[in-house]
Amino acid sequence: MSDRGADLFFYALLLILPLAGLIARRPPLKQTVKMALAWIGIFAVGLLAVSQRDRLPGIFSDQRTSGGETRIRQDPDGHFYAEVEIEGVSRRMLVDSGATTTALSVGTAKALGLDLNANPFAALIQTANGRVAADTARVKEVRVGSIRMHDLGVVVSPAFGDTDVLGMNFLSRLASWHVDGRTLVMTATDRGAAPPAE
């Protein structure tokens, strides 16, 4: 069974259990229909909220900021995802210490209005799926919680799909970063304002 099929089976089971309990109580038909519709409505709203989690970061936030420190809880899939603002465009980005450079999807690059034709030579990037050609660009500002970085190099390629990644060129400009249990802790530094050579 595929992951999607397993998810659908799980959600169907969650819906069937309260409905089965309702039917077992044998209330009058009109009351049964009302309560069944109420349960279906509650389930639909919950499912919609979970499926739109990426677009509702303020409600389902795994990211906390305190002073110059930003803490991100580990996602159930084992990764860390940061709520990032790039030049005013909000994205949920995978934090990947295995990525040398911050990588953006074509959709994010378009939303930012990046000029991908400024450099006529594509960069060759080593990914988990092999080497891919990517355009290079720079973004003026990247914000993660209280962390603010200026003039960050990025790569853009259709091969990245819809995934946006914060790479080592971001992490290396922090005062520190480490994983504490199931939490990624990133500490800001003034060096974020002035980039090193990338």
What does it look like?
One of its GO terms (biological process) is proteolysis. Keywords: Hydrolase, Membrane, Protease, Transmembrane, Transmembrane helix. It holds the Pfam family gag-asp_proteas. The chain crosses the membrane at residues 6-24, 36-52. The chain has 198 residues and is of the alpha+beta class. The protein folds into 2 domains: 3-51, no CATH class; 63-193, Beta Barrel (Cathepsin D, subunit A, domain 1), CATH 2.40.70.10. Helix content is 29%, strand content 34%. It is built from 4 helices and 11 strands; from the N terminus they run ααβββββαββββαββ. It has helices at 3-25, 29-51, 106-112, 168-171; strands at residues 63-66, 69-73, 81-86, 89-95, 102-104, 123-127, 130-144, 147-156, 165-166, 176-180, 183-187. The strands form 2 sheets. Strands 3, 4, 5, 6, 7, 8 and 9 form a 7-stranded mixed beta sheet that branches. Helix 1 (3-25) runs antiparallel to helix 2 (29-51).
Overall pLDDT confidence? 81
What is the makeup of the main sheet?
Answer: 7 strands, mixed
Question: Would you identify the CATH architecture of the largest domain?
Answer: Beta Barrel
With helices defined by DSSP (H or I, 4 residues minimum), what is the helix count? 4
Pfam family, one: gag-asp_proteas
Protein name: Aspartyl protease family protein
Keywords: Hydrolase, Membrane, Protease, Transmembrane, Transmembrane helix
InterPro entries: Clan_AA_Asp_peptidase_C (IPR011969), Peptidase_aspartic_dom_sf (IPR021109), Retropepsin-like_bacterial (IPR034122)
Short description:
Helix content is 29%, strand content 34%. It is α+β, with helices and mostly antiparallel strands. It has two domains: 3-51, no CATH class; 63-193, Beta Barrel (Cathepsin D, subunit A, domain 1).
